[in-house]
Amino acid sequence: MKIYFAGSIRGGRGDKETYFKIIKLLEKYGKVLTEHIGDSSLSSYGETGLADSNIYERDMEWLNESEVLVAEVTTPSTGVGYEIGKAEDMCKKILCLYRKNAEKKLSGMISGNKNISIKIYENIDDIGDILKSFFT
Ligand code: 6IA
Question: Are 13 and 42 in contact (CB under 8 A)?
């Protein structure tokens, strides 16, 4: 199973350690095509050496190849929101993870969408349980 993990880059890297942990958990269920999202050396200035047009084309190809999109949506990100919308158009299964009591409320465009499974977590153990029930 190919899994597309989405997390904020230019939206802010405040949750990058959580992204890394989620990616490690996701690796139990399949191949995560977007491991770089959890890379602690990736700043909000981003991946070096690739033009934005190449990043866009590569990411859309990976999304197309994936069966599932898992997005961590606590830090609002234009790119993650866009990927969720595209994944919905491509009829992918979508799971969004949002941390309880986060400073910013989740966008109504995500929380109001019945095609998206939204799970609220408090800690990384909760995410393990959420992924287990989503993938099995
Ligand atoms: O708007 P954001 O940058 O927060 O969007 C983050 C989302 O868009 C992630 O889930 C990625 O899949 C995708 N994305 C955005 N930028 C990149 C990137 N480099 N490399 C890979 N995926 C990306 C950013 C380069 C740039 C900051 C110089």
Answer: yes
Tell whether the model's pLDDT for residue 43 goes beyond 90: no
Ligand 1: distance of its center to the CA of 60 in Å? 11
Cβ burial of 42 (10 Å; 0-12, 13-18, 19+) is middle
CA-36 nearest atom, ligand 1: 21
Over its C-alpha atoms, the chain yields an Rg (Å, rounded) of 14
Q: Is the pTM of this model over 0.85?
A: yes
In this structure, which residue's CA is closest to atom 27 in ligand 1? 46
Euclidean distance between CA atoms 121 and 7, whole angstroms: 15
Determine the distance from the C-alpha atom of residue 37 to the mean position of all C-alpha atoms in its chain, rounded to a whole number: 8
